[in-house]
Specification:
Chains A, B: Homodimer. The structure is a homodimer. The first copy, chain A, has seven helices and no strands. With about 220 residues, chain A is mainly alpha-helical. In chain A, α1 runs antiparallel to α2, α1 runs parallel beside α3 and α4 packs parallel to α7. Chains A and B meet through α2, α3 and α7 of A and α2, α3 and α7 of B.
């Protein structure tokens, strides 16, 4: 027989995993909207962000009510406080995917990204999606080892971003100022999604080991 | 006579207010480093961010130990959970001030911002500093009314940012791609500092009224 305390903890985790899934899809769709100048898809990412925000709000209320009613300790307390941190990261990732989609919408019917840069963004999206998926999986499996490795994936993202700067600031950049600005901001959004995945990873390490993120490597 | 429970709550609030002060100073100094191409000041903002991070980590550990040991309820519980959210926003604001300083350092001895744009950034910094100060003050005074008004200040920031885009994407922009990219990213950093101040304001409203941010206007 289940009690409402454990039901609430299960709901919290289920909502977080659902958010992870939706964020991953949002990143994927936003990137496709960018690559194919698909304004309908961009719109659906932008409106879909509300569902992510609604889930975030549900996680917050669940977490808060568990703290208020049940005063969990040890592992359960870590799960709730970590959940309340992870949910902020996931909500921001959803916002960032929506920002990407908004740039695709803004430039429509033109593509927002010059063809020569699109491969780089597809690779950024690949890295970001994989990191979001890994973050979700490690949360579900309480896999601190894999969670701690998200930092290494983040280095790929940083490298992709540095390469983009070399392109847009190079002498043979002939796509103009607006395209360069779009590339710089889009690159920033993907980079931030990856950063948030790393921070989720740190929370997973804390959840499993009890070691505070600031004391982790 | 004080007990350690209330000492911990007082410490948590004192650390948050100290962070608010340091963030405001960091924004101010980063902007001066930008305006005056002052690389020493930029360095001091960048290294000063570690002190902000250390305070953040102290707040987290204090908050977590209060939850674990004392299982606070009602207003005290809201204070701890809000504190754990506010600290993330303040930590990010510190990072963003450091990002601004890093652009000043990167372009040194040249100014990162073309003279024609500097007024706009000085105004952005003014708005951001005022918002950070207001966020801190409303936290200290538990002033939900003023906290709720931070949204209106944020509109000034958004307007400044839109005006910057008009400049850098206009036909008479002759400062080149690199300067336009710097302006776009710097503008983004100031805008995000303001966004975080708004989110602190929402937490203050929650702290005082018990109304969740998602249910606030």
């Amino acid at each position: 027989m289940r009690d409402s305390y454990h039901d609430r903890l299960d709901l919290l985790m289920a909502d977080l995993l659902e958010m992870t899934d939706r964020v991953r899809t949002a990143v994927q769709d936003a990137t496709r909207a960018l690559a194919e100048a698909d304004v309908q898809l961009a719109e659906s990412v932008i409106s879909g962000d509300q569902a992510i925000d609604a889930l975030a709000s549900e996680v917050e209320q669940t977490g808060f009510s568990v703290l208020a009613i049940s005063s969990p300790v040890a592992g359960d307390l870590r799960m709730v406080t970590s959940g309340l941190r992870v949910v902020m990261a996931l909500e921001r990732m959803g916002d960032l995917a929506a920002h990407i989609a908004k740039i695709a919408r803004l430039r429509y019917p033109d593509p927002a990204v010059p063809p020569r840069m699109m491969d780089s963004f597809l690779r950024m999206a690949e890295v970001a999606e994989a990191m979001v998926a890994t973050a979700g999986r490690t949360l579900q499996d309480r896999d601190a080892d894999t969670a701690a490795q998200l930092d290494a994936n983040d280095e790929q993202m940083d490298k992709l971003r540095r390469d983009q700067f070399v392109e847009i600031l190079g002498d043979d950049w002939d796509e103009g100022v607006a395209a360069a600005v779009d590339v710089a901001l889009l690159g920033r959004y993907y980079e931030r999604i990856a950063d948030h995945a790393v921070s989720v990873g740190k929370r997973v390490v804390f959840l499993v080991t009890g070691i505070q993120p600031s004391e982790q490597n």
